[in-house]
């Protein structure tokens, strides 16, 4: 029998007890200034750079005063402690931001390569013309254009450039402009974490200390259901075109479909792969049926087994994880 001080509970308590009063105060101050930032930009309509500068100065002064107040000792000791903390902050800031600055510099070079030269617009215009022969081909070409642009430029520029190239041919063959714009918007969001210049993975890897490439690949793996959603809006266009109960119903269907796809991709049904992979493939087929089969009675009835599969995969995955 385990003693009273052993086990996961005592380990958790020991971890919680390591947090000091100053840690709690710093956390409270941080979230308080987030609220102030929202107030400055959302209520007082401060410019983003001005609001960020005010918040940074206020946070620095507040944290410095509280750090000196809670540190025991004389005034000289408090000042020395503040100096050590300030030095460590500068070192940590430089260590985290240096790779990001290099990444942003590379992004700037690639943006100029894509935009200033002009050859990218001509090439993409040619591809869009080729894709006009069939709606599926045009959607595929639009996806390729958006992903390719997202390899080197940020989401806003990716969306604007791809919209200029792809939207006119899409509207000419009958695709609603709202659907086309949201399709390219989703692709632009994907460009935020797509290789090789994944700014999200760069920030996350620097904060966590993990490998940049591994973080980027795990991010792509986690976001695979989002790729399905990008194409599903062509089938479930009522999500954008019919506000009201129909829109809420379409949102519920898409949530269930994407959740079923996520369960198939990331979940486990059996410990052995020869049984697990075919079963996960069946779950994925149900998800794709919900997302891409023409709206009707069958797609509605498929929601019942989909919900049951999600619950089953969650329970089986938890059981397999605990047993392993």
Could you characterize the architecture of this molecule?
80% of the residues lie in helices and 0% in strands. With 324 residues, the chain is an all-alpha fold. Among the domains are: 18-96, no CATH class; 238-324. α2 packs antiparallel against α3 (48-70), α5 runs antiparallel to α6 (135-150) and α9 (199-208) packs across α10 (212-222). The relative contact order is 0.05.
Q: Strand-residue fraction?
A: under 5%
User: Count the helices. How many?
Assistant: 16
What is the structural class?
mainly alpha
- Supply Rg: 26 Å
For the sheet with most strands, the description reads: none
Query: What's the SSE pattern?
Result: HHHHHHHHHHHHHHHH
The count of strands amounts to: 0
Low-confidence parts, pLDDT < 50 over ≥5 residues?
Answer: 1-5
Provide tags for this entry.
single chain; mainly alpha; globular; disordered N terminus
Brief rundown of the structure:
This protein is mainly α and 324 residues long. 80% of the residues lie in helices and 0% in strands.
Write the layout of secondary structure elements.
Layout: H1 8-17, H2 21-42, H3 48-70, H4 75-115, H5 119-131, H6 135-150, H7 155-172, H8 177-190, H9 199-208, H10 212-222, H11 224-232, H12 238-241, H13 245-266, H14 273-292, H15 297-301, H16 303-323
Helix pairs in contact: 2-3, 3-4, 4-9, 5-6, 5-7, 6-7, 6-8, 7-8, 8-11, 9-10, 11-13, 13-14, 13-16, 14-16
């Amino acid at each position: 029998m385990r003693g009273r001080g052993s086990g996961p509970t005592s380990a958790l308590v020991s971890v919680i007890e390591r947090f000091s009063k100053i840690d709690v105060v710093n956390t409270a101050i941080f979230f308080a200034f987030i609220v102030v930032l929202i107030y400055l930009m959302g209520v007082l309509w401060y410019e983003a750079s001005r609001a960020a500068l005010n918040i940074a100065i206020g946070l620095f002064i507040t944290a410095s005063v509280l750090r000196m107040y809670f540190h025991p000792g004389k005034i000289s000791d408090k000042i020395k402690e503040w100096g050590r903390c300030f030095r460590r902050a500068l070192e940590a800031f430089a260590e985290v931001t240096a790779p990001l600055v290099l990444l942003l510099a590379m992004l700037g070079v690639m943006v100029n390569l894509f935009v200033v030269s002009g050859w990218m617009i001509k090439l993409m215009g040619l591809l869009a013309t080729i894709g006009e022969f069939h709606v599926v081909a045009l959607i595929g070409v639009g996806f390729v254009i958006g992903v390719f642009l997202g390899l080197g430029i940020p989401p806003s520029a990716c969306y604007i450039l791809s919209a200029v190239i792809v939207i006119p041919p899409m509207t000419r063959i009958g695709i609603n402009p709202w659907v086309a714009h949201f399709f390219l918007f989703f692709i632009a969001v994907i460009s935020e974490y797509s290789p090789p210049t994944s700014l999200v993975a760069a920030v996350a890897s620097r904060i966590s200390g993990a490998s940049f490439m591994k973080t980027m690949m795990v991010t792509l793996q986690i976001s695979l259901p989002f790729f399905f959603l990008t194409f599903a809006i062509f089938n479930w266009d009522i999500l954008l075109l019919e506000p009201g109960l129909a829109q809420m119903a379409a949102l519920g269907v898409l949530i269930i479909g994407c959740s079923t796809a996520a369960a198939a991709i990331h979940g486990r049904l059996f410990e052995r792969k020869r049984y697990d992979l075919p079963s996960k493939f069946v779950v994925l087929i149900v998800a794709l049926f919900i997302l891409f089969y023409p709206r009707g009675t069958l797609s509605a009835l498929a929601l019942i087994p989909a919900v049951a599969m999600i619950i089953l995969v969650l329970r089986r995955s938890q059981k397999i994880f605990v047993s392993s």
